[in-house]
Design goal:
The chain is of the alpha+beta class. Helices cover about 35% and strands about 20% of the residues. It has 13 helices and 22 strands. The strands form seven sheets. It has a six-stranded antiparallel beta sheet. A six-stranded mixed beta sheet has the order 3-22-17-18-20-19, with helices on one face. A two-stranded parallel sheet has the order 2-21. Helix 1 packs across helix 2 and helix 10 runs antiparallel to helix 13. The longest helix has about 55 residues.
Length: about 475
């Protein structure tokens, strides 16, 4: 009897425990469902609050004076005297670190596929690419009035979930074609202009997509047109600059200097970068073939044609610098990789010319190709203003100057020889310096206790290690480039 009573007590105890577990399980399930609901509604809530503030939180801003691109005194090319001995001097230099590049933003929460029966496809060309982006145009945008209330109403309409597939397609396109931030803004702008009618309407659609994907933008208006500003840590030349909450903002296709701005933070928004860390994979439109040859080494001869779509993109690229370091304006060009079609066609030709050579001999052959294979001309005469080239542009245009040659040479040495390179700036002149792992004599700069030997693509005929005579006693500024 005692055993029976004991067993009953045990059963009662465990039934109580199981009941508690079941209660806990139910509570957890309620908590989980609530968390999912809250998670799924977070972006909707953020957009709703954003639109509510849009009805009233507009302020007038005036742009700062435009920063004009500085004009350096150009140093013309000088021919090397082969009787001159390599001296092996240490060059005084101010060291500038390379800024860190942040990853591109993503939406504040993953955006799920929306099985929307009203979805159509918007087709357009983007630098030679045939693009097809899903778009629900069932509710057309109407900004015939750009009152605060109407803009907020149109924003709410865009945020109702019908554009989720559009956002997914745009992000997928950015990733699959390695688009940098500047190319991506242009892509969204091209899509918006093909999807909706009206300048204000396309600007709002572009701004909405940028905002939802994670970029820091601000809506702005002037007279009867709606624009948007994008935030960047870069100082852009020749474009009106607005400072809003200690952040630089620039108008996209807007040069007005007085704007009414909706200044409100969207969660986790991120500023845009003008670095181009990856090849921009555009459609191919091959230029006319061009032959480039070294005057000293007859076998150093290449034939090249360039993708004109990438040249058109580079033409649109805003000129800038970052972190109050003017050296970065050249580093951004030098760190941009050459297109794969150039690597596939030109690099095998160059490898054949330097195969079996040591580092110094190979670097000297590449140096002479850049020194003597291009025609030197001042930017003012050709463009009417200073204009640095990406490496690919130097292979395309008939003329170039010292900065263009140095940017190209730095790219070739890093890609073909795998060596570290510095950009070296003297007043009015840009050269390079190479970190050889073999012992190499010549003028050098110490960086991180490692000697980088001068290589000047505008000192015509000069070997590695020779410094232009006019630059010998000047303090250089240097910046290390990425590999």
């Amino acid at each position: 009897m005692r055993n029976f009573s004991f067993i009953c007590l045990i059963l009662i105890h465990f039934s109580s425990v199981f009941a508690q577990i079941e209660d806990i399980s139910d509570s957890y399930e309620l908590f989980r469902n609530k968390a999912i609901t809250n998670y799924n509604s977070f972006r909707a809530k953020a957009n709703h609050e954003y639109a509510e503030w849009m009805k009233r939180a507009w302020e007038q801003y005036r742009a700062l004076p435009i920063i004009r691109q500085p004009k350096d005194k150009d140093t013309p090319p000088i021919f090397y005297n082969r009787d001159e001995a390599i001296k092996g001097r240490a060059i005084n230099a101010d060291i500038h670190p390379l800024p860190r590049i942040a990853p591109q933003p993503l939406p504040i929460q993953p955006i799920k596929e929306n099985p929307n029966p009203h979805t159509t496809h918007c087709r357009f060309d983007f630098y030679g690419l045939e693009c097809c982006i899903r778009f629900d145009g069932n509710q057309p945008l109407d900004l015939s009035s750009i009152s605060n209330e109407n803009i907020a109403s149109q924003w709410n309409m865009l945020a109702n979930g019908a554009l989720d597939n559009t956002i997914r397609d745009c992000i997928e396109f950015r990733i699959s074609h390695n688009l940098c931030d500047w190319a991506f803004i242009q892509f969204l702008d091209k899509f918006a202009k093909s999807a909706v009618k009206g300048k204000s309407e396309s600007n709002l659609l572009t701004a909405f997509l940028l905002c939802q994907i994670g970029y820091k933008i601000r809506l702005a208006k002037s007279d009867d047109t709606l624009y948007f500003l994008y935030a960047s840590p870069h100082h852009l030349y020749d474009i009106p600059t607005f400072i809003i909450d200690n952040t630089y903002f620039y108008g996209y296709n807007c040069h007005d200097t007085h704007l009414d701005v909706f200044n409100y933070n969207f969660p986790n928004e991120q500023i845009i970068s003008f670095w181009i860390p990856h090849e921009q994979e555009f459609g191919i439109k091959a230029s006319t073939k061009r032959e480039i040859l070294s005057k000293r080494f007859p076998d150093m001869r290449i034939t090249v044609n360039v993708n004109e779509n990438i040249i058109d993109f580079f033409e649109s690229y805003p000129k800038s610098y970052i972190d109050n370091n003017f050296m970065t304006r050249w580093a951004m060009y030098a760190n941009t990789p050459l297109s794969q079609n150039i690597k596939d066609s030109v690099y095998p030709q160059l490898y054949n010319c330097i195969r079996g050579l040591g580092q110094l001999d190979a670097a000297n052959k590449l140096l002479n190709l850049v020194q003597t294979g291009f025609t030197y001309e001042f930017d003012d005469k050709i463009w009417g203003h200073d204009r640095a080239f990406f490496a690919e542009e130097t292979l395309f245009y008939p003329y170039c100057d010292c900065e263009d040659r140095s940017i190209l040479y730095s790219r070739l040495v890093r890609d073909l020889l795998g060596l570290e390179v510095l950009l070296v700036y003297y007043p009015g002149h840009l050269a390079t310096a190479v970190r050889f792992t073999d012992r190499v004599e010549g003028d050098y700069i110490l960086y991180d206790n490692k000697p980088f030997v001068i290589a000047d693509p505008t000192y015509i005929g000069a070997p590695i290690g020779a410094t232009m005579p006019e630059m010998e006693n000047k303090t250089a500024k240097v910046i290390l480039l990425s590999q």
